[in-house]
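Q: What residues go here?
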């Protein structure tokens, strides 16, 4: 069928498009994050000047409204031109609800949202509550039990966990130079935040080679003076997908920590990291939640921790038991390729859509 995919213009969005096309669908990709206002004539120079004087102007409400209006207009134009059988929006913060309602009511085209963000985050939950009533189908990252705490109004709400494009994330063979560059006993790829600091402090103080790959969001540089051991583990820069593969290949253990660690509930969904790590064939040690136990076999494919002390204990255990660690990583890799690819997850979304709305 014909699917209009409104998604992010990076590897996750392109992975979704490839997955849908591999299933035989005709896909029109709509970049819903593109800057579409003030794009002609002297207005471009004005906008460029504003961006030099005011970093991230989109954080201001009036600028956000301009961007949303321009994106929503282009979105409706794309729908009119393509006439899809299904509109699939990933998150959709830059598309106005009126545009979604118009597609449903005037054009009679079914709409689905793959929200892909945790409802435990108040700002994101508010966005989901605002968008959900304008979709026929609304897929959340968290487990469905979260609706007991945060009910959403939509035609139908279901869980669709994160996933991975196995062409983007897969096992790689490292050169000797790459292995020296990226090797570690324990690695974490992501943002160093205050809620992760206590976990990482415990690892940084142990006699293991621990490396944190990513930027720090700690409220100023003075934190390094207070946390010298942890700050020495930090590679403070943006990490691209191709480099993540090499980090995972060179690390004995890769740690996952939810962005909401210490604040989220039991039914929070997994970020992309566990799927990317296992797709690369690396061993995953993650904070415990309901979803990891539903999607993987804990103790056989991946393992979990619930306190800093448990994390350290399990790191030390798996560093001593290499063959068990390698076998678990292999089984997790097989599970991910079988059940958690972009194609598998979008196939589940389309199966639900066919059961709920009229599709070809």
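A:
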């Amino acid at each position: 069928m014909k699917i209009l995919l409104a998604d992010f213009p990076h590897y996750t969005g392109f992975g979704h498009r490839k997955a849908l096309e591999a299933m035989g669908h005709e896909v029109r990709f709509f970049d819903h994050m593109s800057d579409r206002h003030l794009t002609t004539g002297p207005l471009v120079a004005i906008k460029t000047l504003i961006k030099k004087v005011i970093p991230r102007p989109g954080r201001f409400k009036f600028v956000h409204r301009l961007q949303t209006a321009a994106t929503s207009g282009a979105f409706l134009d794309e729908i009119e031109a393509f006439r899809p059988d299904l509109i699939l929006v990933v998150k959709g913060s830059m598309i106005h609800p009126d545009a979604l309602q118009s597609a449903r009511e005037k054009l009679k085209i079914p709409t689905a949202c793959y929200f892909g963000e945790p409802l435990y985050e108040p700002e994101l939950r508010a966005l989901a509550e605002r968008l959900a009533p304008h979709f026929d189908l609304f897929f959340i990252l968290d487990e469905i039990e979260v609706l007991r705490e945060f009910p959403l109004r939509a035609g139908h709400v279901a869980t669709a966990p994160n996933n991975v494009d196995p062409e983007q994330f897969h096992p790689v063979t490292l050169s000797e130079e790459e292995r020296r560059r990226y090797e570690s006993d324990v690695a974490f790829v992501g943002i160093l935040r205050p809620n992760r600091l206590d976990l990482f402090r415990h690892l940084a103080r142990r006699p293991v080679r621990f490396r944190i790959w990513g930027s720090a969001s700690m409220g100023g540089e003075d934190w390094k003076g207070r946390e010298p051991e942890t700050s020495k583990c930090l590679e403070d820069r943006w990490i691209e997908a191709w480099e993540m593969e090499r980090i995972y290949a060179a690390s004995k253990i890769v740690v996952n920590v939810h962005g909401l660690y210490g604040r989220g509930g039991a039914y929070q969904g997994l970020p992309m990291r566990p799927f990317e790590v296992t797709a690369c064939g690396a061993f995953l040690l993650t904070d415990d939640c309901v979803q990891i136990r539903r999607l993987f076999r804990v103790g056989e494919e991946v393992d979990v921790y619930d306190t800093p002390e448990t994390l350290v204990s399990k790191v030390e255990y798996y560093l001593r038991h290499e063959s068990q660690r390698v076998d678990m990583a292999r089984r997790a890799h097989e599970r991910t390729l079988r059940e958690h690819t972009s194609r598998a997850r979008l196939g589940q979304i389309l199966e639900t859509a066919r059961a709920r709305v009229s599709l070809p």
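A: Context that may help when evaluating the design: Residues 182 and 246 are 7 Å apart (CA to CA). The radius of gyration is 22 Å.
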